[in-house]
Amino acid sequence: MIIVLKPETAAAMQAKLVAQFGSKTELFTHHNRIAIQGIQPADLPADVVAAADDLITDVPAAVQSSRLLHPENTVIKTPHSVIGGDQFVMMAGPCSVESADHVMAMAKVAKQRGATVVRGGAFKPRTSPYSFQGLGEAGLQALRAAADANDLDMITEVMDDEHVPMVAKYTDIFQIGARNMQNFSLLKAVGRTQIPVALKRGMSATIDDVLNAAEYIAAGGNHQIMLLERGIRTFDHKYTRNTFDLGAVPVLQKLTHYPVIVDPSHAVGEWDLVTPMAMAGVASGASGMIVEIHDRPTEALSDGPQALKPKTYLKMAQQAFQLHDLMTSWN
Amino acid sequence: MIIVLKPETAAAMQAKLVAQFGSKTELFTHHNRIAIQGIQPADLPADVVAAADDLITDVPAAVQSSRLLHPENTVIKTPHSVIGGDQFVMMAGPCSVESADHVMAMAKVAKQRGATVVRGGAFKPRTSPYSFQGLGEAGLQALRAAADANDLDMITEVMDDEHVPMVAKYTDIFQIGARNMQNFSLLKAVGRTQIPVALKRGMSATIDDVLNAAEYIAAGGNHQIMLLERGIRTFDHKYTRNTFDLGAVPVLQKLTHYPVIVDPSHAVGEWDLVTPMAMAGVASGASGMIVEIHDRPTEALSDGPQALKPKTYLKMAQQAFQLHDLMTSWN
Amino acid sequence: MIIVLKPETAAAMQAKLVAQFGSKTELFTHHNRIAIQGIQPADLPADVVAAADDLITDVPAAVQSSRLLHPENTVIKTPHSVIGGDQFVMMAGPCSVESADHVMAMAKVAKQRGATVVRGGAFKPRTSPYSFQGLGEAGLQALRAAADANDLDMITEVMDDEHVPMVAKYTDIFQIGARNMQNFSLLKAVGRTQIPVALKRGMSATIDDVLNAAEYIAAGGNHQIMLLERGIRTFDHKYTRNTFDLGAVPVLQKLTHYPVIVDPSHAVGEWDLVTPMAMAGVASGASGMIVEIHDRPTEALSDGPQALKPKTYLKMAQQAFQLHDLMTSWN
Amino acid sequence: MIIVLKPETAAAMQAKLVAQFGSKTELFTHHNRIAIQGIQPADLPADVVAAADDLITDVPAAVQSSRLLHPENTVIKTPHSVIGGDQFVMMAGPCSVESADHVMAMAKVAKQRGATVVRGGAFKPRTSPYSFQGLGEAGLQALRAAADANDLDMITEVMDDEHVPMVAKYTDIFQIGARNMQNFSLLKAVGRTQIPVALKRGMSATIDDVLNAAEYIAAGGNHQIMLLERGIRTFDHKYTRNTFDLGAVPVLQKLTHYPVIVDPSHAVGEWDLVTPMAMAGVASGASGMIVEIHDRPTEALSDGPQALKPKTYLKMAQQAFQLHDLMTSWN
């Protein structure tokens, strides 16, 4: 349950509850609220009940991720970005880091129209073991250099818990891939760092699954979490790679305080569908977008068909910011 | 296959092909194009081949619905609306026609912010036989009166082929419901009329299923077809009634010439998610929207939870048109 | 709610409840039980409460289909079959009635290994309007003749409410196709007859959807209903046409009293997978099977790839009955 | 492509191809067959073409897992079991190892009716971080002791690559859980061992995804792989936890040489549905079954609702072997 305490005595009551229940169950405090797992109102001391404005008993398992415990938005600050605030954050770059020169060129394109984060994979979770698996640490170094040269933040995927320390040396934001969304060892490992984590929704992850996966990160003490909607697997994948579930954006915003980012590239998998879906993603109210770009998509080492060429990207990004400006005018 | 004929001799060649193959297979002509089912290039007379600019052999079953035969957009003109042109068409009204007075009041609200079509169900396809089944012909009359009093077009669902003549007496646009998308007898029946048809995508209909269903209507001679994306059934329906598949909008626009309309109300099923999804629908490039409104949603005879109250609708509609204006400026 | 009345006073109490509530709501009686829609225990007269063994308030919308009202199995008797009893019922035949001779030959094959029902479509719900649509009434006549010549029952699909009287002249069992599972006009039309109905589960119909669709038939007064599991639409259909949901067999048997029949042919869509799935269907506890056979599958007018050749069918059917015999020995 | 070489010169030709292409691409040999990635028939030396019985160019990415390269069944031998041969293998035990005594008692039950493998989780992938996470190494020790005392093999889940060496000290078979099916780091780690691996199908994994995941293990040199069908995620999960996709059994058997095992417990998630689905699994042709048992399901630390009580398990297992015996008589 969650107890909403009167502000003036909240600290004292929280201390009392921690003293009484802390050795038996999980407790989480946030401002004047406190969540206690497995406790009913009848178990509470009378003075706590008297000091409470509200007792919320219908509480999800992912309690730290819930707005019931943490009503205000989480805003994540990286060197060049504010994620979850009033600004719309653009993240762009190639699917894979293919070479130092290439990612440097793509970062420059990304930067041109307002991106503040450059993306690129150095460790690639490929369906087949015989596909390109990424440049590894050399890829991390190249992406870091490209980010620094263009005053951008860097986001890159970490694929297993053993790699967390190495990736942490370079990146501003960890990305957890869709296939690893319930790799709990990995979630715990990034949860022990203080580096922001972008958690991608799994192909068939329910909203509750996403929130519980985020909770694994939060349970380790890392609350710098953003959620990425990248399309789900449904019965029809003939014309799009996945089904972009934009309804998840306002649903997640209602349930959780973490920023929600959309990934139209993976959602549709075809470059000529990316711009309309990017616009739809902005219009749905997302806090940002991550998009794949490539100057020669047919030669890309991975996911070429969904990459935007620079010219298309630049037009799309301009429209995205115009659309976000219009939406800001509505508030 | 589809033969793209040189314009100057197109008519003559089409006549020749109809004479040669017309008794054996289906032929469809559109401007300088002709589609012939079950025929290979080697079957064609030499002069037809010589008169062709292109021979397209990879042709979908739903050939009349395909842009390969009909490259330009279908634009549907009803008394008060142009659907599929440059304008964004707003269709709004209650889920069910509940009474003459109520639907009159709702039509007035719809009209206030630019709707040109009023919606309302007189025959309701309800999951349970014991739920409200609609007012029947009295509902049609009330909706017609509400449309006329407000200079609006009327759209309403027809549930079976026997009812087509009766509904045709009143409506400007037939709606085929999601559960009837593959009720082929009904599709054939509306295909024999010349009244525009709004075909809702079935809950688990693939893009190809939608196009084949539209083809049943076209095969009867009625080409006034629009397609409604209203959400599909996926693994997660805890927080939304369906999954709004906005990727279907640009996919359908690429494949077919029929206008695509979005239905955010049924897609999400919760009123507080309708506005962001309505905005996403506009941004995806749809030609219009159909949305449910009700002044007292908790008392609605059907689908109350997804109805927008008038005030929310009016704000949403204003934003939708602003967003569409911005998008128009990009072209 | 459902009231389980003490047997000795059940009739009197039911009469009393019908008198009191019959004009306001739906009531359904079955032996010593009575279901009343929209009524709470507090609304009941005291003597009814006193005469009740149980008051069940958590009742599904599809109340007549529920075991809560009708605990014992429904057993359907046709001239040559008992469906839902201890016997396993085999229904076999071609997908479409292609000619009088062909269906006669196939009926003879079906009969050889224990089938008591011959199937065949005279009205075919085809995805494309340009595919073979069936022989119509001539097909019905041919199938009737094939059934009669082999002492078999006949099952055939009825596609719309207008055809119900014509099909009723010939068939022993109506089949409602998957695409029409929620064609409520059709369900009501067969519900007004007393001919047994085999209701196919829709491609994305939930268990509750199936039961509510059955309830439309029951609400009309026809309780001779059997349910057909024929595979559902999921994310993977590369190697099978649908996903055979055999879990639905025991689930439906727990919830409803109607017999459950499996259709392995449509479930997998590939003939070489039909035998293992047919065996799995028997082992799941189904009351019967409907399977497609054809002597020259590559020339079949519909669904050839999933048809068993006679030799394969005969072996499969033999095994099915052996397996059912083994299962009978376990009870 | 795959080259099927005439047996007499196969070894020489394989050596020649390895010498020519081995530094540029992946080659895999199996008896008289050789697979070469990215090579076309035109690239082959003339004497290789002359020495070939067949050139197969339509080859899946997961080539080592394919019957095209490896036509005969893989049979895995563990101390007490032969998996993939003529016998049906029963694996049973509690979901989690809860205590040394408890797992010892459950192993004894499992053994009573023919199980040769005891299951139990020491590291548990739980949706919520606050749920029981398993006993860790102490659990492995307890399960090992229970297996040894009852002359059983042991199967247990390994959740991340760091734990592979520790789990390897105890187990006869690694289990890879559904949520980790595409944890490629983990797949590579178990691929470097020679311990048999039971790979569970992911919740939304296609058949091709399963085969590619298996290929990651094989690519490391470990070919002792079995595949577990445990239900997939679909639109309906009200009455069953997942949808048991038994069609996957014969599909996988057609495509791959690895044994296929069914897991009815996770597939349905409700104990009273486990027996019919277990029977269906045997009838589908699976090589074995893994099933959860518990003497006090309501007190189980995980997945209690799906556990069979000993008495139910014993009856189910007896029926399963009788059914398998009947099926053996058909061959």
Structure explained in plain terms:
- Four copies of one chain form a homotetramer.
- Chain A is α/β, with parallel strands linked by helices.
- In chain A, about 35% of the residues lie in helices and about 15% in strands.
- In chain A, the strands form three sheets. The first copy, chain A, has an eight-stranded parallel barrel with strand order 7-8-9-10-11-12-13-14, surrounded by six helices. Chain A has a four-stranded antiparallel sheet with strand order 2-3-1-4.
- The longest helix of chain A has 21 residues, at about 310-330.
- Chain A is elongated.
- Chain A starts with a strand and ends with a helix.
- The mean pLDDT of chain A is about 95.
- The interface of A and B includes residues 207 and 246 of A.
Furnish the topology, listing elements before pairings.
4 copies of one chain form a homotetramer.
Chain A: E1 2-5, H1 10-21, E2 27-30, E3 33-36, H2 46-50, E4 52-56, E5 76-78, E6 81-83, E7 89-93, H3 100-112, E8 117-119, H4 137-149, E9 153-157, H5 164-168, E10 173-176, H6 184-191, E11 197-200, H7 207-219, E12 225-229, H8 248-255, E13 260-262, H9 264-268, H10 271-283, E14 288-292, H11 310-330
Parallel strand pairs in A: 7-8, 7-14, 8-9, 9-10, 10-11, 11-12, 12-13, 13-14
Antiparallel strand pairs in A: 1-3, 1-4, 2-3, 5-6
List keywords for this structure.
DAHP_syn_2 (chains A, B, C, D), 3-deoxy-7-phosphoheptulonate synthase (chains A, B, C, D), 17% strand, 11 helices, 8-stranded parallel barrel, 3-deoxy-7-phosphoheptulonate synthase activity (chains A, B, C, D), DAHP1/KDSA (chains A, B, C, D), 331 residues, homotetramer
